[in-house]
């Protein structure tokens, strides 16, 4: 392997990861004469969940020159201005907070937020809840979409919600139009060269598919990377307890939310994802603390679907990552490479980063071990960076209703980086500086950490607070409210930006 003339690529798996890989690789490499094929088993099918994204997904479609108007309508998609977290904290005033995506307007409001948080961390009684400081929070609260009127030329960061089955089909058609060969068969055997490289896969139809390079998009099973190449899997279960989920749809309402809602329940949390034709719901929980039946009942109760015959889907999750995402002549992408529970909807973000990083490494001309090692380290660091931010949600919870929440708060399995972030915040130190120093701002910037830590009310207790001087109150919050309200008024109702929404 490792010669630049490798030209035949086989993607094994036709879930979202497989079809994203097919599109990006076809777009970059078909013009160079590469032959790209995708093999999937309709019998096994796809996982069929995963309906929220980060803002990164926009760059995927932009790169492929596919307009929002085309793909969003095909996938019942909606806009996402951020995530609301409900009931993770029991501290008065902090029952709920919104984690906004970045926007160009933050430059006018963020310094006030950081300032007030910093002052409150030093025990001065100033207002420091994130919801009041970001235009994206106002858009979500008012059910507005992130595209402003033409006379208000400010860009908002946003992600999307979409039907994952429809997205897969849409990407499949696009990839086939780009010349990707589509095969349907079940891999029954993976054949290796004497040096361990993968030579081909045999299928239940009797066909053998040979290639120079293989992309493992086979889902949690990790058919090539784990089962065949035996790359070890590093579990994250010591600090992320959730290993199961139950999902079910519910009816959409006239007003369509432009946010994901994550509500803490007894043994985990429930997602609520608005699509144009329905809501996607699910409960992510730990099977060590609650049974599948209990989880389903709790979710049904929350949704008012206790007596409904709506079908629930039960899933198990393999949380962690492989030690190497690119091993020999195989790249693992998607659930085969690892998965961090979906609290921040980061899986497709990592898929995109893995693919882009691999394409960049290839185009740099080298399938050298140096490129491979650097690439693997970078993707591993991304996994750990995302994991730490998600672990932070759990260690900051203040719920006492079940042992699950206490155990999540009390365990000591926190990475060195996360421990430094927490200590710096609690001690009133310079968090933005630390985040840059640790080089973790590319995973979550200071704004995200400030939103999370203040959103859970990680401040000195109320009785410890002292009244501040005029300097402590230097930001006029009423003017800020007016500014944010005025900005938000330039954005239309979310539904208006979704012409494909079926109006009732
Ligand atoms: C509960 C839950 C919630 C999630 N929420 C989000 C979210 O909000 N946002 C987000 O970005 N991600 C989310 N994810 C992750 C997301 O679902 C996946 O990253 C995404 O769907 C990609 O999956 P995949 O393509 O890797 O795997 P799959 O969809 O499982 O596809 C695997 C493919 O491999 C094929 N295959 C397997 N074995 C064989 C074989 N022997 N022969 C031939 N083909 C084979 C299958 O047929 C299938 O086509 C969530 C995941 C879970 C579990």
Secondary structure: elements and pairs:
Elements: E1 8-12, H1 16-29, E2 35-40, H2 56-63, H3 68-74, E3 78-80, E4 82-86, E5 96-100, H4 110-121, H5 135-141, E6 159-161, H6 164-177, E7 181-184, E8 187-192, E9 198-203, E10 208-210, E11 213-216, H7 223-228, E12 233-235, E13 244-250, E14 260-264, E15 268-274, E16 279-285, H8 292-303, E17 313-316, E18 320-322, E19 326-327, E20 330-332, E21 338-339, H9 347-363, H10 369-395, H11 403-410, H12 416-426, H13 431-437, H14 446-455, H15 477-488
Parallel strand pairs: 1-2, 1-11, 2-7, 4-14, 11-20
Antiparallel strand pairs: 3-6, 4-5, 8-9, 9-10, 12-18, 13-16, 13-17, 14-15, 15-16, 18-21, 19-20
Helix pairs in contact: 1-6, 1-9, 5-15, 9-10
The protein binds flavin-adenine dinucleotide.
Ligands bound to this protein structure: flavin-adenine dinucleotide
N-to-C span: 57 Å
Sequence of strands across the biggest β-sheet: 5-4-14-15-16-13-17
What structural class do you assign from the helix and strand content? alpha+beta
Low-confidence residue ranges = none
Q: Describe the global form.
A: globular
Percent in strands: 15-25%
Sheet with most strands = 7 strands, mixed
Number of strands: 21
- Give Rg in angstroms: 23 Å
Helix content: 25-40%
Number of continuous helical runs? 15
Mean pLDDT: 95
